[in-house]
Amino acid sequence: MYDVAIIGTGCAGLSAGIYTARYGLKTIVFGEMPGGLITTTHIVENYPGLGSISGPEMGDKFLDHAKMVGVEIQYTKVKDVKKTTNGFLLTTHKGETESKTLILATGSEHRKLNARGEEKLANRGVSYCATCDGAFYKNKVTAIIGGGDSAAKEALMLADICEKVYLIYRKAEIHPEPINKQRILANSKIEVLTETEVEEFVGENKLEKMIFKNDKGELKVDGAFIAIGQLPESKIARDLGANLNQKGEIVIDKDSKTNIPGLYAAGDVTNSDFNQAIISAAEGCYAARSAFEFISGESVSY
């Protein structure tokens, strides 16, 4: 029997694990992506103390810290979770694990554009991670679809590799962080196409071009990267009866508590309105404290 089980090996889950281990709680963390979604980010420049660091490097730092304080990590998918009289029963392909409390830091998945040809050409020119697949398009023409900060960062990363990068957004103006907007507009390799929407991805065995809506023509590209946000991975929470909002995010209070005693959540899967690594880490810290207080009956303050 563990004191705390955590699902998610990203910033939220590993931060929670670091704190629960330091509280002296027997902790296990489950996850399929070591370091979490941050590892698909090219460069992180807004996490205090780390300066400018690649996403994979940042993920490794979180993992190394968690292991240093004795967190047990299993890189496996949790297939099912049931509420029991003693806490929670988690099932993976390796067997069953019991825990007194559970922290969900399951994060999110990339949102699909749902354009014609997207599914057919996925991984054949259509991708959702420029950091992962950008190297395949060295000296080629690519497009990023999206107008937020993630899209801007991916466009800037591709500009270091590709001959030409189009940043395509359906509204009148892109809205990344001001510093990244300045970098986009100053980069001669990047061309911003606003008020433009992709209707179809076209190609036989690989992506050849994109056709736009409203008779805005077409564009030949070698690769297209969709960066239009994420969807919360909240199925486990829903099955356990946790409250979700209209977006499918887990509803938590300021202490990362859900409506179910002993169940906590942190990171991009929650109803926080600002999805950032530092917010995820903070929520993981709150979830850990709440789990400790639940188990020990003690109140923690600093």
Which descriptors would you attach to this protein?
26% strand; FAD/NAD(P)-binding domain; 302 residues; alpha/beta; 2 domains; 7-stranded mixed β-sheet
Structure described in brief:
The protein has 7 helices and 19 strands.
Layout: helices, strands, pairs:
Elements: E1 2-7, H1 11-22, E2 27-30, E3 43-44, E4 53-54, H2 55-68, E5 72-74, E6 78-83, E7 88-92, E8 95-104, E9 108-110, E10 126-127, H3 130-133, E11 141-145, H4 149-159, E12 164-168, H5 178-186, E13 190-193, E14 198-202, E15 209-212, E16 218-220, E17 223-226, E18 230-232, H6 235-240, E19 263-265, H7 277-296
Describe this structure in words.
The chain has 302 residues and is of the alpha/beta class. It folds into 2 domains: 2-109 and 230-296, FAD/NAD(P)-binding domain (3-Layer(bba) Sandwich); 112-226, FAD/NAD(P)-binding domain (3-Layer(bba) Sandwich), CATH 3.50.50. The protein is built from 7 helices and 19 strands. The strands form 5 sheets. Strands 1, 2, 5, 6, 7, 8 and 19 form a 7-stranded mixed β-sheet that branches. Helix 1 runs parallel beside helix 2 and helix 4 packs parallel to helix 5.
Q: Give the second-level CATH assignment, the architecture of the largest domain.
A: 3-Layer(bba) Sandwich
Q: What's the gyration radius in Å?
A: 21 Å
Number of domains: 2
- CATH class placement of the largest domain: Alpha Beta
Question: Helix proportion of residues, in percent?
Answer: 25-40%
Low-confidence stretches: none
The largest sheet is: 7 strands, mixed
The H/E string reads: EHEEEHEEEEEEHEHEHEEEEEEHEH
Overall outline? elongated
What is the rounded distance between the termini? 29 Å
What is the CATH third-level topology name of the largest domain? FAD/NAD(P)-binding domain
- Structural class based on helices, strands and sheet pairing: alpha/beta
Helix tally? 7
How many strands?
Answer: 19
How much strand content do the residues show?
Answer: 25-35%
CATH homologous superfamily label of the largest domain: FAD/NAD(P)-binding domain
